[in-house]
Amino acid sequence: MLLIIRDHYIIVLAPAPASGPVFLSGRAADSVLRRHKRYNSGVFEEVLEGNLVRECLEEACDLEEAREVFEDDQKTMEFWVAYAGEHVFYGECLSGA
């Protein structure tokens, strides 16, 4: 440990404790890069204007997609309370997402 006192500041330099191995196993490394399936039905669907049927009824919906449809926090939350109550069972979405 190194202690430096200079111009009313005290600087303490200490080595950081080792928290674990630097490298991951192959399986752990693959899990970092794994992508979740997207529910878009077409190319560049994300540039289309939000549509409640497409975003939340035909596909699995999350809060951000609902927000895209309503573009208003209060309206989004009113919808989300009802939607989540119908589509969530023991913490998991019924559609498998």
From TrEMBL:
**What Gene3D superfamilies does the entry give?**
Coagulation Factor IX
SMART domains found in the cross-reference section: GLA
Instruction: Return the GO cellular component terms, semicolon-separated.
Output: extracellular space
Q: Which Pfam families match?
A: Gla
The UniProt record lists the Gla domain at 39-85
Q: Which PANTHER family match?
A: COAGULATION FACTOR, COAGULATION FACTOR IX
Protein name as catalogued: Coagulation factor IX
